[in-house]
Design goal:
Helix content is 60%, strand content 9%. With 665 residues, the chain is an alpha/beta fold. It has a seven-stranded parallel barrel with strand order 1-2-7-8-9-10-11, surrounded by five helices. Strands 3-4-6-5 form a four-stranded antiparallel β-sheet. The longest helix has 33 residues, at 622-654.
């Protein structure tokens, strides 16, 4: 490729990079102020823990507040929970008939059992006056007066027992007052009801407003409130009450609450990300590992609600003492990494001027155009620079059009994907020496790594700027094509370095070389290598993204060690695989070991793709991403350069001495 042809595209990439840096500066200013983490205790489970050990739950919660907890999740009352507390008794009509037949019927319900009205699906409730009034008011508000009748001290509600006993009846002010008395703030756990009407939801909203405002709201079970027809109304009542939506982070589609994506959009920006571990996960996780997961979520993923359930006492867990210590450890480590403990607020919007977004789009389009130009030269089919610029200008027109009318988010995702998939490969190809160098191979390899990584960091910055929007920072939307962005750079590097020894004269010559190469006999060692590479590619793709293969135990221990040592843990595929391989590739090119350049460079492209992948995690604070990228680079440099030096030493020791020519007289 002639440098003059690429100069205009490089200038456009530079303009895009300058705009991206301005955008990311604004993002960093927002992220630097968004550092307060709220530690929320599950009120129901912590209460059960204290009662199991004969302790006063409120004393335990007050002690947890002194250890660093800030809030307690207060659940809505249900008929089932009120009955467990001994405040009410309820029976279905069928149960009353059976108890009457067995002569075990309580006198409370004797008149109800004798009622012969043909209404089979009815629940009869009795309790103390205040509790019964609370239940009656709540049920009427949610289900309507037509389904509720008061007969003396008995409340009759039409409906299935299985539905009614799980109906969320709301919260009482005294419940929240007791939480505050323990030195904690309330967090509300609300639940959906399948038969909820718009009027019932409005009544719930009025009850929330009466409780005050500013609470984080976390939904129970597998649905958000109002799913699915009433989600806009749910957002409206939460806003009116001044409450914040705590969206639970999940790594499995089965754990997602139905309706959460839509509600997150409706609540924008009044949403806070929440991390929790399920009771099933707590049963198998060591306490130290669970603590690391909570702290890591706050450091790496903009989690600001840390929701802690207690460990169930076992032979290895000491009950309240161990759990209170766990809370203190989480709070201590959160502070140790520069975060604060307190009331979590929603992430503010990052204000970006449209011109900066357009210039960043120009840089992304120019990067893709540069890749097209380089690829054409590599395969012997040069692409006219005018044609490339025509594509870039067309992309700019589309960007402007999407800004005013169209799927802008999708278009930004496509621009980010194109940049992530192309610019790292071009950087590797441009950094690779084309002829043998006099410099030491280790130094040449390090130079290749850092030059290529500079181009990949530019790509990462462009991607990060394109996707700097609230929905990506809150993980309500994610980067498109993670696996594609991992695979394409490797393939492109192979194509760009195919003619590393000599430039292709025409695409016909390239096709002829490929055809001749495909006719070579397949040696066993190459077949084995192909299988190994194929398996490695499958594992790499399966491990990309949030849903994939689990970590090996040894890798998990290595991650934890690197995290403790360096704070910002570098990616394994960068500092242990990709970066050392790219140093080896540069060293091989400099030393004239031509046959090793292509496979090592392709392996090195994995690390370059990993750099961009780190920047594409927009929900990770930018400073943390930059830190882990630098850590991976210097570690990869050490491993790569050290490996080259060792190989050179071994080669010099193991290679046979040159033969001496016999003397002639």
């Amino acid at each position: 490729m002639r440098r003059r042809r690429a100069r205009s595209l490089l200038i456009a990439i530079g303009l895009g990079l300058a705009a991206a840096l301005l955008i990311l500066w604004s993002r960093w200013n927002v992220e630097s102020g968004y550092r307060t983490v709220e530690i929320v205790l599950d009120g129901r489970d912590w209460e059960a823990l204290a009662v199991r050990e004969g302790r006063d739950p409120w004393e335990v919660l007050a002690e947890a507040a002194r250890r660093g907890a800030t809030s307690v999740a207060v659940y809505e009352w249900t008929l089932e929970r009120l009955a467990e507390r001994g405040e009410i008794v309820y029976r279905s009509r069928e149960e009353l008939q059976a108890e009457s037949y067995l002569r075990t019927l309580s006198p409370l319900f004797s008149a109800s059992a004798g009622n012969s009205e043909p209404i089979p699906s009815t629940v009869f409730i009795s309790g103390n006056r205040d509790t019964l009034a609370f239940v009656e008011s709540s049920v009427i508000d949610i289900l309507g007066r037509a389904r509720v009748r008061r007969s003396g001290d008995i409340l009759e509600v039409r409906g299935l027992r299985a539905d009614l006993e799980q109906l969320g009846l709301g919260l009482r002010r005294q419940d929240l007052d007791r939480v505050r008395a323990a030195g904690l703030a309330p967090a509300l756990r609300l639940r959906n009801y399948p038969g909820l009407t718009k009027e019932g939801l409005a009544a719930k909203g009025a009850a929330l407003r009466e409780l005050g405002g500013g609470y984080p709201v976390v939904f129970e079970l597998n649905e958000v409130l109002g799913y699915d027809r009433l989600l806009p109304d749910t957002a409206r009542i939460l806003r009116a009450a001044g409450d914040r939506y705590g969206r639970i982070e999940v790594f499995s589609a089965r754990r997602k609450q139905r309706g959460e994506d839509r509600l997150a959009r409706e609540m924008r920006p009044e949403m806070i990300r929440l991390f929790s571990l399920t009771p099933e996960e707590l049963l198998v996780l060591p306490i130290g590992e669970a603590r690391d997961k909570f702290v890591r979520s706050a450091r790496e993923r903009n989690i600001r609600l840390v929701y802690i359930r207690p460990f169930i006492p076992t032979a290895g867990v000491e009950g309240t003492t161990a759990n209170l210590g766990f809370v203190a450890d989480v709070a201590r480590d959160v502070r140790r990494f520069g975060l604060r403990i307190g009331r979590a607020d929603p992430l503010p919007e990052v204000r970006i001027h449209p011109a900066l977004r357009l210039l960043t789009g120009l840089g992304a389009l120019a990067a893709m155009g540069l890749a097209l130009l380089v690829l054409g030269d590599a395969v012997g089919a040069p692409v006219p620079i005018r044609f490339v610029w025509a594509l870039v200008i067309l992309g700019l027109i589309l960007t402007v059009a999407m800004r005013f009318s169209g799927p802008l988010i999708l278009w930004l995702k496509l621009l980010a994907l194109g940049t992530a998939a192309t610019l790292p490969a071009v950087s590797v190809a441009a950094a690779m020496p084309r002829s043998r160098l006099e410099a030491a191979p280790a130094l040449a390899g390090v130079r290749v790594l850092w030059l290529a990584s500079g181009g990949s960091i530019v790509a990462g910055l462009l991607v990060a700027a394109l996707l700097t929007r609230w929905e990506f920072m809150m993980a309500a939307d994610v980067f498109l094509g993670v696996k594609i962005a991992q695979l394409i750079p490797v393939v492109l590097v192979v194509l760009l370095l195919w003619g590393h020894d000599k430039a292709a004269q025409s695409w016909r010559e390239t096709a002829r070389d490929l055809w001749e190469w495909s006719g070579h006999p397949l040696l066993l060692r190459y077949a084995v290598a192909a299988v190994v590479v194929g398996l490695a590619a499958v594992i790499l793709l399966a491990r990309s993204g949030n849903f994939g293969l689990p970590l090996l135990a040894v890798e998990d221990r290595l991650r934890n060690f690197m995290e403790d040592l360096l704070v910002a843990r570098p990616r394994t595929k960068e500092y242990l695989i990709g970066h050392p391989a790219l140093v080896f590739a540069g060293a091989a090119a400099a030393a004239g070991w031509r046959r090793w350049v292509l496979p090592l460079a392709a392996l090195g492209a994995i690390g370059q793709a990993g750099i961009v992948n780190s920047f594409s995690h927009i929900h990770t604070p930018l400073l943390y991403t930059a830190w882990r990228t630098v850590n991976a680079l210097w570690l990869g440099t050490l491993f790569g350069a050290g490996g080259v030096i060792v190989i050179q030493f071994l080669a010099s020791r193991l290679s046979p001495p040159p033969r001496q020519r016999p003397r002639t007289h």
